[in-house]
Specification:
This protein is of the alpha/beta class. It is built from 4 helices and 5 strands.
Length: 108
C-alpha cells in the first residue's frame, strides 16, 4: 500500500494507493487518526485497487473521530473497486464522497 500525507489548505489529504487490507490497514489507520489530531482530513482513494473490511474499518474510525472533534472528513476520488465495497456495506450514504479535492473544499 502507498500512503502519502499532503497539506492542502485547511485540510490534509491522506492519499492511499494499492491494496488496503489486513496487513496494510494499520498504516492507513495511523495516518488518518494522526492527521485528525491536528486538522480535518480528506482520504483520497483514487489509486486504491482493493480495500477489505479492515481498510473500511479504518475509514469508519476516522470518520467517527472527526465527528467527535467536529473536524471535516471526506473521501475523494473513490476508485470503482473501493466504491463497490462501500456500497456493499451501505457506507456510500454515510461518508461524504467527493469527486476531487477541489470539489470537497468547495462543498465546505
Amino acid at each position: 500500500m502507498k500512503c502519502e500525507i499532503i497539506d492542502h489548505g485547511p485540510v490534509r489529504v491522506v492519499a492511499l494507493g494499492g491494496e488496503v487490507d489486513m496487513s496494510s490497514s494499520p498504516e492507513a489507520r495511523r495516518a488518518i487518526l494522526g492527521v485528525l489530531s491536528r486538522s480535518g482530513v480528506l482520504v483520497d482513494l483514487s489509486q486504491v485497487d482493493y480495500i477489505d473490511s479492515s481498510g473500511v474499518a479504518s475509514l469508519v474510525e476516522g470518520y467517527q473521530l472527526a465527528r467527535e472533534r467536529r473536524l471535516p472528513f471526506g473521501l475523494v476520488g473513490v476508485s470503482a473497486s473501493a466504491l463497490m465495497v462501500l456500497q456493499l456495506a451501505h457506507l456510500h450514504t454515510v461518508f461524504p464522497i467527493h469527486g476531487s479535492i477541489e470539489d470537497a473544499l468547495a462543498d465546505g
